[in-house]
Amino acid sequence: MSGEVALSDITTTDVLIIGAGPIGLFAVFELGLFDMRCQLIDILDRPGGQCAELYPEKPIYDIPGYPVIGAQELVDKLLQQIAPFKPGFTFNRMVTGLERLESGGFRVATDENEVFDAKVVVIAAGGGSFQPKRPPIPGIEEYEASSVRYAVRRIEDFRGHDVVIVGGGDSALDWTLNLQPVARRVTLIHRRPEFRAAPDNVNKMHALRDAGAIDLVIGQVSGLSGEGGELRSITVKGSEGDVEVSCTRLLPFFGLTMKLGPVAEWGLNLHENQIPVDTEKFESSEPGIFAIGDINWYPGKLKLILSGFHEAALMAQAAKHIISPKERIVFQYTTSSTSLHKKLGVAD
Amino acid sequence: MTKLTYIAHDGTRFEVEAENGSTVMENAIRNAVPGIEAECGGACACATCHVYVDDAWTSVVGEPEAMEEDMLDFAYEVRPTSRLSCQIKVRGELDGLVVSIPERQG
């Protein structure tokens, strides 16, 4: 891979952080205090990880100093806290490749072929990457190479097809509206007549259905039929029995689930889908690759945000030793250090 | 204490004593009842603690709220008696409650 990438297309950074959840974000702060520049990559479209994706409105009661704080509020405050260090963010990307460079440091590649070179890699990937959930329809795997899609990458792939979209959220409704003009026929299937999606889009969908431009079926997909990996039709179990719907492209939107993903392929030792680390540096079995937060494991590990913050602080010390081996690390407090104040952009 | 019975998909029954105020999901996890995953930890943010409430108990347990109904869209083989067990709080009148665990979580 190294030979094919033009140098101009490579983003270089001191520390590449995989995962922009609360721990990845706080790592930017601890690393920033030691003048290390950070680049974060996350599969979601925004920072915050599980806090933003799973429970933004929920309260957290065990963040020291906050008797209660909303999950999204915590993310917002962390973003504010790390703003002085101007981290780079790359969203909607899965890190697919991680390899050690002969010149030292690491090369990281994403599923959209972006390339990053970093002296240190920090894996703060929590429960793994959020990926579309495979709906529990028997035999769906055999159609995934062609007819079943979990995202729309190119609208042209749907032109002239009998498209069936399953779900009641924004993705399902957005694509119902957007694919209707290009598809041969769009059928929207949802378990119940109520939709989670934005009301405006639900109204537009109903208008299309009333005009006969799309079909809406209330029920659950129970079976698939086709051959050679190509779907022909699906069976929908509704309140009034089974309905057969012609289908050559199936787009199921069943939410996201966390999967370890490509982390397993990077040659790191693993312990039940977690990365074993030492408790001094939180370094993996590969020198220079650290793992902090829910993704790591050590005796006594607790999957708490506060534990991840501690891990980030100790990791930063070790990362500094790698990046500036000759520099003596002086321990300082943010409260009183004038040099830290300068980095944080606060007045003395 | 309130008695709860979980019936696993293979028919195995798990009887547990639950504290009032805890959730049906929490008691399943504490007692290592198989088939309840609770990926999100009880935030009503996934659909991996899905159970079927026994027909005799549906009216006592009650209907899901809108947010739970939304999450049930992601569950496997949803039926009229489907609930997310993290959203069922144990209380005295549920003494004897029976719930079944689906073949798989979504």
Automatic annotation (TrEMBL), chain B:
A family per Pfam: Fer2
Keywords recorded for this protein, A-Z: 2Fe-2S, Iron, Iron-sulfur, Metal-binding
Record InterPro entries: 2Fe-2S_ferredoxin-like_sf, 2Fe-2S_ferredoxin-type, Adrenodoxin-like, Adrenodoxin_Fe-S_BS, Beta-grasp_dom_sf
The 2Fe-2S ferredoxin-type domain, residue ranges: 2-105
Essential cofactor(s): [2Fe-2S] cluster
Entry similarity comment: Belongs to the adrenodoxin/putidaredoxin family.
Protein name per its UniProtKB record: (2Fe-2S)-binding protein
Organism: Aminobacter carboxidus
